[in-house]
């Protein structure tokens, strides 16, 4: 489907986010779900009852995802919203299992400025339906142009968050949300009986250079995947930079996994 801007760009600039419901074909949605399961099932250095909660840095190693996340369908949409060409900065698949917790209110820019202090655009692509019942994303309309107060834990100060009107983003499989790195957002617990997957692909302006590998090199040093961590090391700097707001931090080490 060809994407044209106009009123959608105006909405994005005013509200800080944009929902697009007819981007992928039914066949592409089936591919998306198959690919997400393939990445989920890649061999891991794990033993026991550990639960996989997220996979990152997989586009370079998966032909289908690489073609989608770096392909013209998504990049053309982002170019029109940003007014310039964009490059893939980072990508992850979140696996929100039934009964798992939500993410605290935050803005994404806090985790990015150590690379370069630039704005990013993120695509949330629903692999499965995402809604209030299963812990879908919630946003604060227009917060991308507000000075949102950030606490010492890198999350939004609770006093500010409690005063806001939070908008639930309900998506069916294959539908997507685009938002910037300064939009306040959060998610609740998955209160449904079904697990769900969601892809978050973040992009930076092409004029800033290809920052993908630099981002993951830094992340691997201070916040390595669980199976590569040294026993006894707390990784406090990495937790503050990359793990803020995450329910994974409330789970005892050895009961969750990031790859």
UniProtKB/TrEMBL annotation:
Pfam families: PhyH. Its cofactor is Fe cation. InterPro entries: Phytyl_CoA_dOase-like. GO terms for molecular function: metal ion binding; oxidoreductase activity. It comes from the Eukaryota. Belongs to the PhyH family. This is PhyH-domain-containing protein. It comes from Lepidopterella palustris CBS 459.81. The lineage of its organism: Eukaryota, Fungi, Dikarya, Ascomycota, Pezizomycotina.
């Amino acid at each position: 489907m060809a994407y044209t801007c106009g009123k959608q760009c105006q909405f994005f600039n005013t509200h800080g986010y944009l929902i697009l419901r007819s981007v992928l074909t039914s066949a592409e949605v089936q591919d998306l779900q198959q690919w997400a399961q393939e990445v989920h099932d890649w061999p891991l250095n794990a033993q026991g009852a550990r639960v996989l909660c997220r996979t990152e840095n997989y586009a370079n190693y998966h032909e289908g995802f690489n073609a989608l996340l770096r392909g013209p369908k998504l990049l053309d949409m982002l170019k029109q919203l940003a007014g310039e060409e964009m490059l893939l900065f980072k990508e992850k698949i979140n696996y929100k299992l039934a009964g798992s917790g939500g993410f605290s209110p935050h803005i994404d820019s806090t985790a990015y400025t150590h690379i370069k202090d630039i704005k990013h655009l993120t695509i949330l692509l629903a692999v499965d339906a995402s809604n209030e019942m299963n812990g879908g994303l919630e946003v604060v309309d227009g917060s991308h142009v507000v000075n949102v107060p950030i606490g010492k834990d890198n999350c939004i100060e609770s006093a500010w968050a409690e005063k806001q009107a939070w908008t639930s983003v309900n998506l069916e499989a294959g539908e997507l949300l685009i938002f910037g790195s300064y939009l306040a957002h959060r998610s609740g617990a998955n209160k449904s009986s079904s697990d769900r997957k969601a892809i978050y692909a973040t992009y930076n302006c092409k004029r800033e250079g290809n920052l993908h590998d630099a981002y993951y090199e830094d992340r691997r040093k201070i916040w390595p995947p669980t199976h590569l961590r040294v026993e006894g090391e707390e990784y406090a700097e990495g937790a503050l930079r990359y793990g803020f707001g995450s329910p994974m931090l409330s789970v005892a080490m050895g009961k969750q996994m990031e790859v």
